[in-house]
Amino acid sequence: MTQVLLAVVLGLLFALGTFLVLRTDVVRVVWGVTLMSQAANVYLVTMGGLTGGAPVLEGGHGGETGAVTDPLVQALVLTAIVIGFGTTAFALVLTYRVHEEHGTIDLGEVRAE
Amino acid sequence: MSTATAFTDTHVVIAPMLVALVTAILTLVTRRSGRTQRALSLLGGVAYLVAVARLGLAVLPDGVLVYQLSGWPAPFGITLVADALAAFMLGLAAVVSLAILVFSLSYVDDQGQRVSYHPLYHFMLTGVSGAFLTGDVFNLFVWFEVMLMPSYVFVVFYSGRRHTAAALQYTVLNLVGSALMLVAIGGLYATTGTLNMADIARRLAAPAEFGIDSGPVLGLAAVLFVVFALKAGIVPFQFWVPPAYRAAPAPVSAFLAGVTKKVGVYAIVRLYFTVFAAGTLEAGLGLPGLSGRSFLAFFGPVLFVMALASMVVGGVGAVSRDDLDDVFAYSSIGQVGFIVLPLAVVATVADPAIRVLGLVAALVYSLNHAVAKSLLFLVSGAVFEAVGTLKIPQLGGLTSRRPVLSGSFFVGALALVGIPPLSGFFGKLLVFDTGARAHAAGASLAWLALAGALVGAVFTIAYLSRAWSRAFWGEVSPAVDRAGRPVVLVAVVAALAALVVAIGVGFDPVYGAAEAAAEAALDREGYVEAVDPARFEPTDESSAHALGRLPGVAP
How many domains does chain A have? Predict the structure, then answer.
């Protein structure tokens, strides 16, 4: 059930992100890109599998741990989030510069010049 | 497990990355003192070349050098791998980036250099080196981002009207590419159970043993391929190239065209010819026009179409442009076609000799394009500095006023056309040789490769002779008559032109290096064996127990 729900949510997120990227308003485009990279992050978490306990090795190394979820994907997502944070900030600053230079954030008008 | 001495020996692998990173930080700290900063930046560029040369000398006898980060063995830690292929690409980057750096010291305005140019340049070089050296697909994503972030800033460096618009397009496109790359990498991890490239290759070779379904892996590899094609600017992912190259400062365009594009090419060679080539489909492809069971049988025709389309789109675009930077930008779309074409042949033939030859052709052509195209972009920078415009109708007669500059352009253009004894001659020769031998061996698409290469070559001659006769020959235009004398810029450009001649005249060692690199790219067993991802495979012990034996983990 969780799998189906997550698959639907991911599909919606990617669809919405794609829709926004194709707008002419620069701010919406940046939103779209942000949404897409967040969707990629959620997708990445699901790739480690959804079942299993907390990946904690109680009682030191070598003890019995049982089935645990994959902690690696969460480390990957942290890296991806940090990178996405930086690039989103840059994209927003760039949007501001586009507005300063062109007096508009409509890509149709920016291109026409 | 390796001894302490073996660890110190392999530190040479990370030396190029460390040098670039330290230089970037030092130039950031010293930005208040312009002179110190420039000296450090130049010193860093030279040190990078030395570090790469040292790495090359270490790789030469040892074959594959592996650096396991923090001593965590593959596939648990991040593995950095330096083989002949990585060393070849690093060598290309080191030589070209040093020439570009010297050019920038004189070309970029003082304010720009002090504020951000040098740190960004070396951060970009760090990202490029990391991408060449990493043996881990997620780590490759990280290095791509390290390489891209400075390039976003560089495209908007002059932050005028044109530059902000171009940077927005470039940034958004690459951010979408990054999201795609994450999706592909996440999927690969879920299907193969590992991120280590050698481990992926090992598991793909025995899919049943590891419970891998090859079909989804091929699909995810195709998604990843889109990202690399975007970085390399291959049609149909080329549309960002001209505006970005025109907006960026000339030396940065030279770097983007000469080095950054080659990272995309390198990633295609490394991942599809070393790693994913291990994969086979159980039932065949079952797609119209595509047959065969190997993963490469799928990518071969795709590469063919993309290479031919790149040559035509780049050629037509370059012939019809009136701005030198535009001509060179479209030209680099077309020239990447020449790099991808032999790769397409390699993917479709089985003969090992032709496979090596095809990869040698792709690598030699990459080197030729890196040096010659950087040279041409630097020429356009020097022309802009001297004349103040790059519009071809306003230029003219540069040969009589600036003979050295014009001569350098001529050498770079001839190298791209492929006139002996310049570097480009061997590149073109090898591409045609690959096509002809594949044709003789009975490969079905080889005649298409030959015809495509011929059409591409004709386009190259057309747009370069047009630029030469309109911008450099002819009546001296008023703008050229008032031209200044950028001595340092012309000296750098002339040095690169001399390098183009030198590579062509002393081609033997270059061919040797390219051949070693091509063999390393195709030697999957050697790559997997060197990285050794199976060392800690739990056999009868529990995996937790095996982990207890890792270095760095107290038992």
Answer: 1
- Give the total number of structural domains in chain B: 1
3-state SS assignment for residue B98? helix
pLDDT of residue B549: 43
B405, B382 Cβ separation under 8 angstroms: yes
In a domain, B543, yes or no: no
Runs of H (alpha helix) within B11-135: 15-29, 34-62, 84-107, 110-112, 118-133
| Bridge partners of residue B262, in order along the sequence | none
Query: Chain B contact for A27, CB < 8 A?
Result: no
Across the interface, do A90 and B182 touch by the CB < 8 Å criterion? Answer: no
Let me know if residue A65 belongs to a domain.
no
- Domain range for A101 is 2-48+70-105
Tell me whether B1 touches chain A (CB under 8 Å). Answer: no
- Closest by Cα among B254, B460, B465, B468 to B371: B254
Q: For residues A9 and A3, give the distance between their C-alpha atoms in angstroms, rounded to a whole number.
A: 10
Question: What SS3 class is residue B398?
Answer: helix
CATH number reported for the structural domain that contains residue A41 in this entry: 1.10.287.3510
Residue A82 lies in a domain: yes
Residue A112 lies in a domain: no
How much is the ipTM here? 0.93
Residue B333 has which token pair? 């779309």
B313 pLDDT above the threshold of 80: yes
Q: Is residue B386 part of a domain?
A: yes
Average pLDDT of span B381-410: 91
Contact status, residue B309 vs residue B334, Cβ threshold 8 Å: no
Residues of chain B contacting residue A90, judged by C-beta atoms under 8 Å apart:
149, 152-153, 171
Residues B477-535 have pLDDT tens digits of 888 888 888 899 999 999 999 999 999 999 999 999 999 999 999 999 999 999 988 87
Instruction: List the domain range (segments joined by +) for residue B242.
Output: 4-533
The answer to the question of residue B489 being in a domain is yes
Cβ of A87 and B142 within 8 Å?
Answer: no
B261 in any annotated domain: yes
Give the pTM.
0.93
* 125-154 in chain B: CB under 8 A from chain A: 138, 141-142, 145, 149, 152-153
A73 in B contact zone (CB under 8 Å): yes
